[in-house]
């Protein structure tokens, strides 16, 4: 599954024009895997890890973003999710 993170500032302006200087990351609990697409810093390819709990499973998602690949300056969440 491919997920595209689109960020907006407080005024509601789309921040796609600053994507080359910003990164995003999704963190699932229970843990899952995710890989960033090579061409985008805000598009993530998600793969459910077969070693985790059986699907469907409830959990939480944190959306992280920042100015480097660690994407650890700001976090949104936790957001309740169901992983199937």
Explain this structure to me?
The protein has 84 residues and is mostly beta strands. The chain has one domain (2-83). Helix content is 0%, strand content 46%. The chain contains no helices and six strands. The protein has strands at 2-4, 23-29, 33-36, 43-47, 57-66, 74-83. The strands form two sheets. A three-stranded antiparallel β-sheet has the order 1-4-3, with no helix packed on it. It has a three-stranded antiparallel β-sheet with strand order 2-5-6, with no helix packed on it. A hairpin with a 7-residue loop joins strand 5 (57-66) and strand 6 (74-83). The model has no long low-confidence stretch (mean pLDDT 76).
What's the topology here?
Layout: E1 2-4, E2 23-29, E3 33-36, E4 43-47, E5 57-66, E6 74-83
Antiparallel strand pairs: 1-4, 2-5, 3-4, 5-6
Supply the key terms:
mainly beta; globular
> In DSSP terms, counting alpha (H) and pi (I) runs of 4 or more, how many helices?
0
> What is the beta-strand fraction?
over 45%
- Which strand order does the major sheet show? 1-4-3
What's the rounded overall pLDDT mean?
A: 76
Radius of gyration: 13 Å
Low-pLDDT segments, ≥5 res? none
Question: What is the helical fraction, as a range of percent?
Answer: under 10%
How many domains, as an integer?
1
In whole angstroms, the N-to-C terminal distance is 11 Å
Largest beta-sheet characterization:
3 strands, antiparallel
What is the overall silhouette? Answer: globular
Element-level helix/strand string: EEEEEE
User: Count the strands?
Assistant: 6
Sheet/helix structural class: mainly beta
């Amino acid at each position: 599954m491919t997920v595209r993170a689109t960020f907006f500032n407080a005024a509601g302006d789309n921040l796609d024009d600053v994507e080359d200087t910003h990164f995003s990351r999704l963190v699932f609990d229970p843990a899952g895997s995710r890989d960033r697409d090579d061409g985008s810093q805000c598009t993530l390819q998600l793969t459910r890890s077969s070693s985790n709990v059986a699907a469907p499973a409830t959990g939480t998602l944190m959306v992280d973003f920042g100015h480097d690949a660690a994407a650890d300056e700001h976090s949104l969440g936790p957001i309740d999710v169901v992983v199937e």
